[in-house]
């Protein structure tokens, strides 16, 4: 028997019996990943939010909410996510919120994010005077934590 005839016999046994027949999976296999994803436990350490936009929130409520968020930070991801959420609003966060954010950065030992907090303040402040007021208010904490400004790190880029 030639090798080609052996190949023909082997391929005939594998071919489907119908003309064009799509492979069908049992129904349980198709639905299993969806059911498994729904029944998984949540391991998040932060509070769950349900699509609630805080449109009617006052500045004081905003500050209290983010202070609590930063006080509960346990890792770098949570810190950066909360900073992104905080700076996404069309306002400059209060000094108390920024203090909590800087303390959280120190707690999770994230030096670059602490420097970036001050860059965020500079970007969100409307005027240079407002930025200087924030720097004056946070000066003692900044020196205590040893966080330099970007202007101090790269003086030639000004």
Automatic annotation (TrEMBL):
SUPFAM superfamilies: Cytochrome c oxidase subunit E. One of its GO terms (cellular component) is respiratory chain complex IV. Keywords: Heme, Iron, Membrane, Metal-binding, Mitochondrion, Mitochondrion inner membrane, Transit peptide. It comes from the Eukaryota. It is a peripheral membrane protein. GO terms for biological process: mitochondrial electron transport, cytochrome c to oxygen. It is found in: Mitochondrion inner membrane. Pathway: Energy metabolism; oxidative phosphorylation. Signal peptide: none annotated. InterPro entries: Cyt_c_oxidase_su5A/6, Cyt_c_oxidase_su5A/6_sf. GO terms for molecular function: metal ion binding. Belongs to the cytochrome c oxidase subunit 5A family. Component of the cytochrome c oxidase (complex IV, CIV), a multisubunit enzyme composed of a catalytic core of 3 subunits and several supernumerary subunits. Component of the cytochrome c oxidase, the last enzyme in the mitochondrial electron transport chain which drives oxidative phosphorylation. The respiratory chain contains 3 multisubunit complexes succinate dehydrogenase (complex II, CII), ubiquinol-cytochrome c oxidoreductase (cytochrome b-c1 complex, complex III, CIII) and cytochrome c oxidase (complex IV, CIV), that cooperate to transfer electrons derived from NADH and succinate to molecular oxygen, creating an electrochemical gradient over the inner membrane that drives transmembrane transport and the ATP synthase. This is Cytochrome c oxidase subunit 6, mitochondrial.
């Amino acid at each position: 028997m030639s090798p080609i005839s052996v190949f023909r016999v082997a391929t005939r046994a594998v071919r489907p019996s119908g003309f064009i027949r799509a492979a069908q999976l049992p129904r349980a296999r198709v639905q299993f990943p969806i059911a498994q994803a729904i029944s998984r436990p949540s391991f998040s350490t932060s509070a769950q939010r349900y699509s609630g936009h805080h449109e009617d929130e006052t500045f004081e409520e905003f500050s209290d909410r983010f202070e609590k968020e930063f006080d509960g930070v346990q890792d770098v991801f949570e810190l950066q996510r909360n900073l992104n959420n905080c700076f996404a609003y069309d306002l400059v966060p209060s000094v108390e919120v920024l203090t909590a954010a800087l303390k959280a950065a120190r707690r999770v030992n994230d030096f670059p994010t602490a420097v970036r907090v001050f860059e965020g303040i500079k970007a969100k402040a409307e005027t240079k005077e407002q930025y200087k007021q924030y720097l004056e208010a946070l000066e003692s904490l900044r020196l205590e934590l040893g966080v330099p400004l970007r202007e101090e790190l790269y003086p030639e880029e000004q």
